[in-house]
Write a structure and sequence with these properties.
Strand order of the largest sheet: 2-1-3-4-5-6-7-8-9
Helix content: 40-55%
Mean pLDDT: 94
Distance between the termini: 10 Å
Length: 268
Amino acid sequence: MIEFIQEMAKLRETVKAQKPLVHHITNYVTAGFCADIALAVGASPVMADEIIEMPEMTGKANALVINIGTINAKKYEAMLKSQEVAHSKHIPIILDPVGAMATEYRLKAATVLAGQGVAIIKGNYSECLALLSKEAKGRGVDSEADATLTAVELAPKLALQYKCVVAVTGAVDVISDGKKTIIAKNGDPMLGSITGAGCMTGTLIGAAAGVTTNYLAAAVFGITLMNTAAEAAVQTCKGPGSFRMQLMDAIYQTTAQDLMSKFKGEEK
C-alpha cells in the first residue's frame, strides 16, 4: 500500500512536468470550472464537441474526459466519434456518467459508451449502480439509489463488468480495478455546496491518466487531490464562494509530499 501511495503521489510532479492535453466533451454547466482546475494542476484543457473536428482534436490529446451531464443527440454523436479516435490512438478515456440513473436516454448513452471501452468510470453510487443494473430509477443527477450493494462491493463488480477502473464517489470513495480495491477517506462536506466538484475531479483524473498507464493510481490521485485540497480550503473559507477560490489555490499548491502525508485510506 505504501508503494502504491508513493506512485499515486508522484503523478503530481509528472502532470506538472508533462502538461498533458485533456480533451473534454463535457457538461456546459461546469466546463469553465473544469478548464480552471486543469490549469491549476498543470494540465492543458480543451473543450470541444463539434463532431467534424473530433479526429483532429481528440487525436492530439493525452486523455479524453466524457461527461454526460448536459448530453444531447449532437453531443452524443461527437462522444462516440471521439471515443473511436481515442481507441485508435490508445488514448485513455474517462467516463463520468452524470445522472445515468435519471432517464433511460442517459442510461443508454452511458452504457453504450462504457461498453465500447473506457479506462476509468467515475460516478456516484447511484450512477454506478445504474450502470451495473442497467436500470434508471432516479429523479435527478443527485438522486440516491437504494443501497442494494455497498460501495465496496459495487466498485469491483462494475470494474469487472466493464473491464476498467471504477471510482464510486461519496462520503467515502471506493476505487477498484476488479482485483485491488482502495478505500479513500479524505474530503469535506463543503464540496457538496459548490457546482462541479465531481466534474472537476474527473478532470484531475483525466490529467493523471494522460501521463500514466496505471489507471487505478490515476483515479486515486484525482480523488485524493480534490479531497485533500478541500480539507485545506475549508480551513480559511467563509462560505461556498470563497471555498471555490481557496479550493483552486489548494489544488495549485498541493505537492506530491502533501498527497503522501495527507492520504487517508486503506486497501481492501
